[in-house]
Design a protein that fits this description.
alpha+beta, elongated
Length: 884
C-alpha cells in the first residue's frame, strides 16, 4: 500500500499546474478503461484500481505531452475545451436534450414577449423630440373624470398660457371617398397647420399645408396616409396635385405621409381644420383633441401644475362649463401605448419567472450530473488540474448548453410572435391600443436573446461549477466517495433549487388563476343585449348629401332602408341607432329636470345620448322594464318622448318613478322638453368589464343623427346576409359607404381579444412553470434515492418495511414543497397586487385561488415524489450493500 501511494504521488507530481481538457480526459479515460478491464478479469475493485494506477504510471509519454500542451495559446485551449464539452454533452443525451428544451422554453418565451415590448413600448417614435410632446385632455366630474376632448375656448386660453412652445387643435372629420370603385368611408382628421409641425413629420411625397391654407374659405386640400395611397390609389407616384372626391367635393392631394406616421391610429387622411377666430369663444362644446410641445426646460410635473392653475382661473371666469374640471397631460409615448402597456409589462414579469424556473431546473440537472462525474473530477484534480482549470472547462460546458438552448429558443420566439399578434385586435374601436401588424425579430431582439442566454448560463451554471471544483484529490482513492457529509452538502443545494422552483411556480399559478377567473367573469357578464344572430352595418352619412339641417332626407333614408332590410330573406327584424354598443363611438348630452335649479358649480348632469328606431330594442333583445317602447307614431311633429335605462333611473330617481318626468335637453333660454315614457335594461356599451353609463334614448325620427348603425336579427348565419343587406342599402343610395359590417357576436368576441390573449399567455406560462417544477422535484427525489441506496439498503436490512421507505422519500418531497409554498405565498401576495387593474370582479387576495394553486403544487409534488419513492421501496438490500 505504501508503494502504491508513492506511485500515485509520482504521477500527481507530473501535473502540478494542470492539463488541457483533452489530456485530462485521456488520462481519466485510460484509468477507467484499465479498471473496467481488470474487473472483467476477476479482480476486486480495489485490486483493479491499484493495477490500473501502476499501469498508468508506466506511461512515460505523459511528461512530454504535458510539456507540449501547457504552452498552447488560449484560443486553442478554448477550442479543445469546447470539443471536449460537446463530447461530454453528446455522451449524456438525456441530460442534454432535457436541459436544452428547458432553456429553449424559458429563453424563447422571454425573447418573444420582449420582441412585443420592444416593438410597442421601446420603439423610437418618428417624431421630433417626442419627450416634449403631450396630449392635453379635460377631465370633468360630470363625465366620470375620464380624460376627454376639450372645448375650443379652453384651447385658446391654454395656448396663450406660456406653458407650451406650441399647441394645436384637431377633431374627427370623417369623409366619403367616391370615384375609386365602391364608395369608401375614410377616417379623416381635421388638424391645424402647426399640428404636424409639432410632431415634426414630413410627407414622403408632396408637402404640408401652410397657415395661410388653414383658414376658413381656404382651398380643399388633403394629406393622405400611406395605407390609403397604396391600397386605394394603387401607389400612384403622380398623386400629388391630383383631385379626389371627398363628400362629393374635389380635394387636391397635397402629399402622402410616411408609413411610420399613424397618429392618431387608423387615420386615412388629414385636412385643414380651418377654424375661425370666433370658434375659440366656445366653452360649451367639447370636441377638440389637443397636442402640444412643452417649452424647453419645463418638466411634465411643472407643466401639470401650471396648467392646473390656469384651469382654476378659467373655471372662475366660466363656472358654468369649467368648474370642477381638471387638465390631464399625457406624454405621447403613453398616449400611443394606451391599454396595452400594463398587460405587456405584467407578461414580461411573468415570463421572467419562467426563465428563473428553467434556470433552476437546469441547475438541478447539472448538479446531479456533476455528482455522477465526481470521481472523474477527483482524478483530474489528483493528476494536477487546478480549480481554475476545472472552472474554465465547466463554464465552457455551461455556455455550450446555454447557446444550444438560446438557438432553439430563438426558433420558438420566431414562431411565437405570430401568436402574440392576437394581443392587438386592430379593428376593435373600444380598445385603446397601438396599431401593430407585425412583430419584427431585429438586431435588438437578437442582442436581448444573447444577453439572457449568457445570463441563463450564469444562473444555472454557477452553483454546479463551484460545487464541482471543490473536489479533493483523495476522493479518487476512496471507495466511499459518496460520503454522508458530501451527500448532505449536495442535497442542500438541490433542495434549495426545488424550493425556489415551487415558490416561483406558485406565484405564476396564483396570477394565472386570478386572470382566468377574471376573464371567466367577463365572459359571463350580461351585455344587456342578445349578440347572437344579429348583423350590424355602421355608416356615416355624407354631410354633402345629408346635411344636418335637412333632417327630413335622413329620416326618409332610414325609414326606407329598414323597410328594405326587413324584406331581405332571413331577416326577422331590423332597427337602427346612432352609437352601437362595443364600437367605441359615443356622445353625451346635458339635461335638467323640470323644476330643477341649475347647480351653482355649473356642472350640469350628463348622460349618454342615444337615438333609436322603434324596432331597435326588439332586434337587439334589450328588455323594456317599465312603460312603453317607441312606435311609428313617435314622429317629428308629435310630443317628444324618451326612454332611460335602469342606471339612469337608479342614479337620478332612486325609489321614485321616472315615468312621466320631463327632461330639458336644451338650455335655459331655449328649453327642449322630453317626457320619459319607459325604462330599459342596462346595456354594456363599452364592454363587459366596463361600468354602465346613464343612457337617454330618443326616437330617431325626433332626433335624427348623421351616425347610423343598422341592426338585423336573422334566423341564419348573420355573416351570410352582409352582401344582401348592403345591396338593400345601396339600392337607395349607391354612393353610401358602409364603414363596417360585422355580426354582433364577432364584435363582442373581438372586444375580449386583449383579455383572452393575456389570460392564455399567462396560463401557458403557469402550466410551463408547473411542468418544470414537477421535473425538478422528480429529479431531486430520483437522485436522492440513488445517493441513499446504501442507506436505504441498510435500513431495510435492519427491518424497515417498504411503507417506511416510501414514507421517508415522500416526506422529503412534501417538506421541500411546503417550504416553497410558504415562500411562494409571500411572493404571490406582492406579485398579484400588480394585477389589480386587469381584474374584473375578482379580488387580488382571493383565498380560494391561492388555496387551489397551493393544492395543485402539492399534488404535483406528490406525483413527482411517488415514482422515485416507489423505486426506493423496491431496492434489494443485498444488492445495495454488495454494490457499495
Amino acid at each position: 500500500m505504501r508503494k502504491l501511494r508513492a506511485l500515485w504521488m509520482r504521477i500527481r507530481g507530473l501535473f502540478v499546474t494542470g492539463y488541457s481538457a483533452d489530456f485530462n480526459a485521456e488520462l481519466e479515460s485510460h484509468l477507467q478503461l484499465h479498471i473496467e478491464d481488470n474487473i472483467r478479469h476477476g479482480m476486486t475493485p480495489e485490486q483493479a484500481r491499484r493495477e490500473a494506477l501502476i499501469k498508468l504510471g508506466g506511461i512515460e509519454q505523459t511528461r512530454q505531452a504535458y510539456r507540449e500542451r501547457q504552452s498552447l495559446p488560449w484560443i486553442e485551449t478554448l477550442w479543445q475545451d469546447s470539443r471536449f464539452g460537446l463530447r461530454m454533452l453528446a455522451k449524456n443525451p438525456g441530460f442534454t436534450i432535457t436541459a436544452v428544451l428547458t432553456l429553449a422554453l424559458g429563453i424563447g418565451a422571454n425573447t418573444a414577449i420582449f420582441s412585443v415590448v420592444k416593438a410597442v413600448l421601446m420603439a423610437p417614435l418618428p417624431y421630433k423630440d417626442p419627450s416634449r410632446i403631450v396630449a392635453v385632455w379635460t377631465a370633468s366630474p360630470a363625465r366620470g373624470n375620464q380624460p376627454l376632448p376639450s372645448s375650443p375656448g379652453d384651447f385658446a386660453i391654454w395656448k396663450k398660457g406660456g406653458i407650451f412652445d406650441d399647441l394645436a387643435p384637431s377633431y374627427d372629420d370623417e369623409k366619403t371617398l367616391t370615384g375609386q370603385g365602391s364608395p369608401q368611408f375614410l377616417i379623416g382628421y381635421a388638424v391645424s397647420a402647426n399640428y404636424l409641425r409639432i410632431l415634426g413629420v414630413q410627407p414622403q411625397l408632396g408637402r404640408l399645408y401652410t397657415d395661410e391654407e388653414d383658414k376658413p374659405g381656404g382651398p380643399k386640400i388633403a394629406l393622405l396616409s400611406n395605407h390609403l395611397w397604396r391600397a386605394t390609389l394603387h401607389s400612384d407616384p403622380n398623386i400629388v396635385g391630383k383631385a379626389i372626391t371627398l363628400d362629393g367635393k374635389p380635394f387636391t392631394v397635397l402629399g402622402v405621409m410616411p408609413p411610420t406616421f399613424d397618429y392618431p391610429a387608423t387615420v386615412d387622411l388629414w385636412n385643414p381644420i380651418a377654424m375661425a377666430p370666433s370658434d375659440f369663444d366656445d366653452f360649451n362644446h367639447t370636441y377638440v383633441r389637443i397636442i402640444g410641445r412643452l417649452r424647453p426646460g419645463i418638466t411634465l410635473e411643472a407643466a401639470q401644475r401650471e396648467i392646473n392653475a390656469l384651469e382654476a382661473q378659467t373655471a372662475a371666469a366660466h363656472p358654468s362649463t369649467d368648474n370642477g374640471n381638471r387638465v390631464v397631460l399625457v406624454p405621447i409615448r403613453q398616449q400611443l401605448d394606451g391599454d396595452i402597456r400594463k398587460p405587456l409589462l405584467i407578461l414580461l414579469g411573468a415570463v421572467g419567472l419562467v426563465l428563473l424556473i428553467a434556470c433552476a431546473n437546469t441547475a438541478g440537472l447539472a448538479l446531479a450530473r456533476n455528482a455522477e462525474r465526481q470521481k472523474e473530477i477527483s482524478v483530474r484534480v489528483a493528476l494536477g488540474a487546478t480549480r481554475l482549470r476545472l472552472l474554465r472547462q465547466f463554464v465552457t460546458e455551461s455556455l455550450l448548453l446555454a447557446i444550444m438552448g438560446g438557438a432553439a429558443g430563438m426558433l420558438l420566439a420566431l414562431a411565437g410572435t405570430r401568436l402574440l399578434l392576437t394581443l392587438f385586435p386592430n379593428d376593435v374601436a373600444n380598445l385603446q391600443i397601438p396599431k401593430v401588424t407585425e412583430i419584427p425579430i431585429d438586431r435588438g431582439v437578437f442582442l436581448f436573446a444573447l444577453a439572457i442566454t449568457l445570463l441563463s448560463a450564469f444562473l444555472f451554471g454557477v452553483l454546479p461549477v463551484l460545487k464541482a471544483t471543490r473536489a479533493e484529490a483523495s476522493d479518487a482513492m476512496k471507495e466511499s466517495a459518496r460520503s454522508a457529509t458530501a451527500s448532505r452538502r449536495s442535497n442542500r443545494s438541490r433542495s434549495a433549487i426545488v424550493v425556489t422552483e415551487v415558490a416561483l411556480s406558485l406565484m405564476l399559478l396564483t396570477a394565472a388563476g386570478l386572470v382566468v377567473a377574471s376573464f371567466q367573469r367577463v365572459m359571463n357578464a350580461d351585455l344587456g343585449f342578445q349578440s347572437g344572430h344579429v348583423l350590424s352595418l355602421q355608416i356615416f352619412l355624407p354631410i354633402d348629401r345629408y346635411p344636418f339641417k335637412e333632417r327630413e332626407k335622413t329620416r326618409a333614408l332610414v325609414d326606407e332602408a329598414i323597410r328594405r332590410m326587413n324584406a331581405v330573406p332571413g331577416v326577422n327584424s331590423a332597427g337602427a341607432t346612432n352609437f352601437l354598443p362595443l364600437t367605441g363611438f359615443w356622445g353625451t348630452t346635458n339635461f335638467l329636470f323640470r323644476g330643477q335649479v341649475p347647480p351653482k358649480d355649473g356642472q350640469l348632469p350628463e348622460a349618454d345620448n342615444r337615438v333609436m328606431t322603434p324596432g331597435y330594442m326588439q332586434t337587439m333583445g334589450i328588455p323594456l322594464l317599465r312603460g312603453r317602447a317607441f312606435t311609428d307614431a313617435d314622429r317629428a311633429e308629435t310630443a317628444h318622448v324618451a326612454i332611460v335605462n335602469q342606471t339612469f333611473a337608479r342614479q337620478y330617481f332612486k325609489d321614485r318613478d321616472p315615468i312621466g318626468a320631463e327632461l330639458n335637453l336644451g338650455t335655459e333660454d331655449k328649453p327642449d322638453w322630453w317626457r320619459i315614457v319607459g325604462i330599459s335594461g342596462d346595456v354594456k356599451s363599452f364592454g363587459q368589464d366596463q361600468p354602465t353609463h346613464a343612457d337617454i334614448y330618443r326616437p330617431f325620427d325626433q332626433a335624427p343623427f348623421p351616425i347610423l348603425a343598422f341592426t338585423l336579427h336573422t334566423d341564419t348565419d348573420p355573416a351570410a346576409l352582409i352582401k344582401p343587406a348592403e345591396q338593400a342599402l345601396w339600392s337607395i343610395d349607391s354612393d353610401l359607404p358602409v364603414f363596417k359590417a360585422i355580426p354582433l357576436d364577432s364584435l363582442a368576441n373581438q372586444s375580449l381579444a386583449l383579455r383572452r390573449a393575456s389570460s392564455v399567455l399567462i396560463s401557458g406560462f403557469a402550466i410551463l412553470a408547473l411542468v418544470l417544477a414537477c421535473i425538478g422535484i422528480y429529479g431531486v427525489m430520483a437522485y436522492a434515492v440513488t445517493q441513499r441506496s446504501q442507506e436505504i439498503g441498510v435500513r431495510m436490512a435492519l427491518g424497515a418495511g417498504r411503507t417506511d421507505v416510501l414514507r421517508m422519500i415522500m416526506t422529503l418531497g412534501f417538506r421541500l414543497t411546503a417550504v416553497g409554498i410558504i415562500i411562494g405565498l409571500a411572493g404571490a401576495l406582492a406579485f398579484t397586487r400588480l394585477l389589480t387593474s386587469l381584474l374584473f370582479e375578482t379580488a387580488a387576495m382571493n383565498p380560494l385561488i391561492f388555496s387551489i394553486a397551493a393544492g395543485v403544487l402539492v399534488a404535483v409534488a406528490v406525483l413527482a415524489s411517488y415514482l422515485p419513492a416507489r423505486r426506493a421501496a423496491s431496492i434489494d438490500p443485498i444488492n445495495a450493500l454488495r454494490t457499495e
